[in-house]
Amino acid sequence: MLPLAPLLAVAGGGTASALDAGSPTSAARAAAALGEQAGAFAVGLRVALLVGTALVAGLALVGLVAPAPAGRPGRGIRVTGWVAAGVVAVAAEVVHLTGDVAVLGTVLQVVAALAAAALIGSRWAALPGAVLLGLLAVQLGSVRTGLPFLLDVAYAVGAAALLGAAATLAAARRGSAATRVRVAPPQGTLEARRSRENAEAPTVRFAAVASGAAVPDEPAGRGGPPLVPVAIVGGLLATAAALAQLLVSGPQTSHDLVGSPYGLASLAAVALPLLAVVGVAVAARHERTFRAGGAIAAAPGAHDSRASRAERTTPALGAPRPGRELARIGAVVGGVGLAAASVLAALPPPGPAPVPGQPLLRTVASGGETLAVLVAPLRPGPNLVHVSGDYTTPAATTPVAHHHGTTPATATVAAGDAPPVPITARDGAGGGWAVVDLPPGKGTLTLAVGTGSATVPVDTGTAPEQAGALVGPDGPECASALLGDLAGQRPGTPAPEVGACPSDALSEADADALRATARGIVDRGVDRIRLVADDSPRSVQAAAVVHEAAPDVSYSDRPDPDSALVVVSGWAPARAALDDASARALETPTHLGGTYLAPWLLTPGVVTATASSVLPLTFDPQETRSRNYAGAVAALFPGEPPATAGYLAWARHEGVPPAPRPTLYGAAPVDVPMTSTGEHHAGTPNPASWFPGGTVVPVSAPLD
């Protein structure tokens, strides 16, 4: 029975990858943190159910090592068991009514809890106690698999033993009224009228009393020595399991360990059982000291008429109040530790530790919302920072390097104590962007978005800077490729390294696609081409390929009615050129020969800038695999649009090769009644669309 089932999976290649699999990827962690989180009510139910189950199971199972005298536990133990069983019954039923929980699991847990409470004190209670312990182990580890799950099972066993033993020690009967010790004069045992309780007390001769011998208040089996080792072993097991879980599952940085709710809860799960063990051990030591030093006063003499008629009694030494209080505190502290372990499933998981040279994908909470943050290349010097959300484009040229804002910005990022850099939008791309200088070694980035701020730990190492195109105008496309690489990563595989960007060189597949496109334009009778390029290595090579494939047409730098527009630049220049052409087309015929975009320009920020365009592609954006990629990247980085560079990086992890020959695809808006641009048919935004409010479909056979 799973009392809480937060979304802890990310789509990758059409399959769900659990966060808690052996080595969760950065994408899985980010998607889990950005997914829907459980509310306070659901978390409270989980805590009540698990702590109550552990307490009832523990009270039932300690009867195996310390059965109650005559099978009759003290009133305090019975009350504690019934209260815990009631909490379990109510919480289980509420979870069943409000969540997706099987009826059989609910009935089993409720019946086992009530049966255990009714049988506490007898060895028969061990059967429902074992059932409850199994349910507790499964519920505590319900969001993990493999070794992390086994560690949660160990924690559940240890916590139940600690709670059961400590609660039994705390609820043990005091000897002030339960048990008394009888003192006899030296001549022998004085027979006198005795109450039923005194008749059951041991007879102690004067010589024994004078020597200071300690007398137990009740049989050692219940509340006596056997329970102390049980509590200590259980607490140490829980502490060891929580510590191992901390090392296996994280947090992986000291920043997250002490600065995030997940880290603090993990520390509590480690430390509190250990504190409970200390409390129980001190309580046991206090009791032993009290017993050893408690001497019973001798009877006054034979002439004392009251002594001759009745025995003299002293308070029993079974459980002195300070010891009981320490045991009670230990039980409470152990329960809080289990509660901390229980809420881990509902907290945003910690992000990965920064590794120099690898893209860092993290989530932060700022301004009342959870944001995704990408930092690359994570080397000393300029680094690109990409943040999810909506941001404004500055009035001046979009900053692409070390530009510090001169006017207040609604979002900024700063490296250490350096001046903040504004986070702004970029043409053709989604989200916010900034370039910041990071010093060598470890440090932090501080993001200020809206009214909140958050920090991200970074580690750039000491290698020389190697940012290149990543911090230039083509940075967003390079970041898209990194996100696609992260989205396609599988657990246990090496994390992607930041290497060359797509704009650093023209691939052979793209060259073939442009060559076939240029020949097709000539075959259609177009004799004039307006070629838009930039100074990136890929664009320069692409322009040369177009010129080589169509040497007989004339090339123009200005828009005109009869030319074909061919764009082989990066995203930002392409968006500017398409915006200009679309504006001119409203006033006069422009580029009637068609608009052709390079394959790497398939991204919503570019293709939506014109009424229609044609792209030579080696994959179908409407196929299931392409949509899976778009959904995966949107899950790990909200608002991130799909792009050719990202898809190709993702497809390499899937083992999906590009088509051997390119096909021309037409991208155009589609007017669907009762919907708005960029919306599903249900009227909600589609975060995983290649053309929001439109479509991308093949318009030719594969090109030669």
From TrEMBL:
Keyword Ribonucleoprotein: no
Region (Disordered): 302-322
Oxidoreductase is among the record's keywords: no
Keywords, ordered alphabetically: Membrane, Transmembrane, Transmembrane helix
Transmembrane segments: 40-65, 77-95, 101-120, 127-147, 153-172, 227-248, 260-284, 326-347
Biased composition (Basic and acidic residues): 303-312
Name the record gives this protein: Uncharacterized protein
